[in-house]
Design brief:
Shape of chain A: globular
CATH architecture of the largest domain in chain A: 3-Layer(aba) Sandwich
Radius of gyration of chain A: 20 Å
Helix content of chain A: 40-55%
Number of helices of chain B: 5
Strand content of chain B: 25-35%
Strand order of the largest sheet of chain B: 2-1-3-4-5
Number of helices of chain A: 13
Largest sheet of chain B: 5 strands, parallel
CATH architecture of chain B: 3-Layer(aba) Sandwich
CATH class of chain B: Alpha Beta
Number of strands of chain A: 9
Oligomer: heterodimer
Order of helices and strands of chain B: HEHEHEHEEEEH
CATH topology of the largest domain in chain A: Rossmann fold
Number of strands of chain B: 7
Strand content of chain A: 5-15%
Distance between the termini of chain A: 26 Å
Structural class of chain B: alpha/beta
Strand order of the largest sheet of chain A: 7-6-5-8-9
Number of domains of chain B: 1
Largest interface: A-B, 25 and 21 residues
Radius of gyration of chain B: 16 Å
Number of domains of chain A: 2
Largest sheet of chain A: 5 strands, parallel
Order of helices and strands of chain A: HEHEHEHEHEHEHEHEHHEHHH
CATH topology of chain B: Rossmann fold
Helix content of chain B: 25-40%
Chain lengths: 329, 169
């Protein structure tokens, strides 16, 4: 079985959600459609639906995160699942062994789903490959590889504001090289048939062969890159992932690639500005833009809960198709 | 059916009920009743797919539009409308959705076609048509234009999924 298929069961249903790679436009659209349904749960007096009642979901965070962990936790709780939050700080050695040991222990507690964040690329895959067949794994960010729920919540936010992807010009700005968010976004944008996908970054933060590998037009100049764009996605400057002198200083980065109202003026008048958070104000963008009327950054956070509810319930729903009870006996 | 409902509301002294249809067929029927009785408030719509009791057996259902309740349900007299009543499980789920939105004063159930096969103690207050069917037969509403009640057979591969669960061995 190919690596791309590990996410799907024999009937093509979503079992694990590890990356955007290998998923069809139909499946991504299904996730977006289901998300629209879950958005309404936040408006109920009782903000909960009983879909995953009796299921146990473990948040395994080997890398710190506030927003992602909280929204995964809220999503699981709004699905009526029981949630375990485990913040596991990694020791530099014997990661593989620790990971498997942790996994076996949690499986012994009859956990139905793992939500995994890890600083190493491929960690969620590793867990999915070694987990019991009745357990689902959702990748909440692995190293520089993938952050698929973030990618999908961004797609949902774009669709909410702009509708069809085919006529859109979407620019992703910033540290493309180190960003798992950018990888997931670019893959999803291309799978969904976005009219024009652009990346805008300093030369040192663009991966080799970016335009072919990522299906995007590459710009090294912000003004030029945002011209006539419908959507501008700013990425966080990942200081903790940067080794060596890739940038002279944050101040200089802002001078060249920081988004300001003035630089936004060449984009479409109804363009929206997005950011996965947390924002470094005055580095990636001006506060005026972050808090301005084109910013949809806080909507992204609300949408993140609904997207995670959709993905979690789809994966748990798929487990049920195979008769979880039988597998356990 | 509309006349029966109007009479019942009068007998119960309910002047301003809130009408809610269950997706998808129930919404079509509710639209007709809503127009016929000229209720001033917009129609509510319920999506019960997150509350179904067969999720743990057959997974997620195909997407229907999300629930839309235009005004709060608290202390309101609700008329819940669906196309076909058989097992009663849909109505059980719909009541749960409703109570997650608030605490209604009362709930009446209006059904276009009521048939045998109840698995829960749920009975309609207003009924368009009553039917007793052979095992394996089903009645379905097609629509929205034209609205048509269809009598058919459940395909054999679906019968197993709809059958009651076997007791654990």
């Amino acid at each position: 079985m190919s690596i791309a298929n590990i996410q799907l069961d024999s009937r093509g249903n979503l079992k694990h959600f590890l990356m955007i790679d290998g998923l069809s436009r139909e499946l991504l659209t299904e996730i977006l459609d289901k998300t629209a349904g879950f958005l309404g749960v936040a408006e109920q007096a009782v903000k909960k639906v009983p879909l995953c009642r009796g299921k146990t979901i473990a948040n395994l965070f080997f890398e710190t995160s506030t927003r992602t962990r909280t929204t995964f936790e809220l999503a699981a709780k709004r699905l009526s699942a029981d949630v375990l939050n485990l913040n596991i700080s990694t020791s530099a050695t014997a990661k593989g062994e620790t990971l498997l040991d942790t996994l076996r222990n949690l499986e012994a507690m009859h956990v139905d789903m793992f939500v995994v964040r890890h600083a190493e690329s491929g960690a969620a895959h590793f867990i999915a490959k070694h987990a019991n067949p009745h357990v689902s794994v959702i990748n909440a960010g692995d190293g520089r590889h993938s952050h698929p729920t973030q990618g999908m919540l961004d797609m949902f936010t774009i669709r909410q504001h702009k509708g069809d992807f085919s006529d859109l010009c979407v620019a992703v700005v910033g540290d493309i090289l180190h960003s798992r968010v950018a990888r997931s976004q670019l893959l999803a944008l291309n799978t969904l048939g976005t009219g024009e996908v652009r990346i805008i970054a300093p030369r040192t933060l663009v991966p080799a062969h970016a335009s072919e590998a990522l299906g995007a037009r590459v710009f090294y100049d912000l003004r030029e890159g945002v011209r006539d764009a419908d959507v501008i996605i700013m990425l966080r400057l990942q200081r903790e992932r940067m080794r060596g002198g890739m940038l002279p200083s944050e101040h200089e980065y802002f001078q060249l690639f920081g988004l300001t109202e003035e630089r936004l003026s060449t984009a479409k008048p109804d363009a929206i500005v997005m950011h996965p958070g947390p924002i470094n104000r005055g580095v990636e963008m001006d506060s005026q833009v972050a808090d301005g009327e084109r910013s949809v950054i806080l909507e992204q956070v609300s949408n993140g809960i609904a997207v995670r509810m959709a993905v979690m319930s789809m994966c748990i729903g798929t487990q049920n198709l195979h008769g979880q009870g039988e597998a356990r006996d | 059916m509309g006349d029966d409902l109007a009479e019942l509301l009068k007998a119960r002294r309910i002047a301003n009920p809130m009408m809610i249809g269950i997706h998808t067929g129930g919404v079509w029927i509710a639209q007709c009743l809503h127009a016929q009785l000229a209720f001033p408030e917009p129609l509510g719509q319920l999506d019960i797919s997150f509350y179904r009791d067969d999720f743990t057996r057959i997974g997620m259902h195909p997407q229907v539009p999300p629930s839309q309740l235009p005004v709060p349900v608290d202390d309101r007299h609700i008329v819940l409308v669906d196309d076909v009543l058989q097992t009663g499980r849909t109505i059980r789920a719909a009541l749960n959705v409703l109570f997650d939105y608030g605490r209604p004063a009362s709930v009446l159930l209006a059904i276009l076609a009521e048939r045998d096969g109840r698995e829960l103690p749920i009975e309609p207050d207003v009924v368009g048509l009553r039917a007793r069917l052979e095992p394996g037969a089903q009645v379905k509403l097609a629509g929205p234009d034209p609205l048509q009640l269809m009598l058919g057979q459940i395909p054999p591969e679906r019968r197993k999924a709809d059958a009651p669960a076997a007791p654990p061995s």
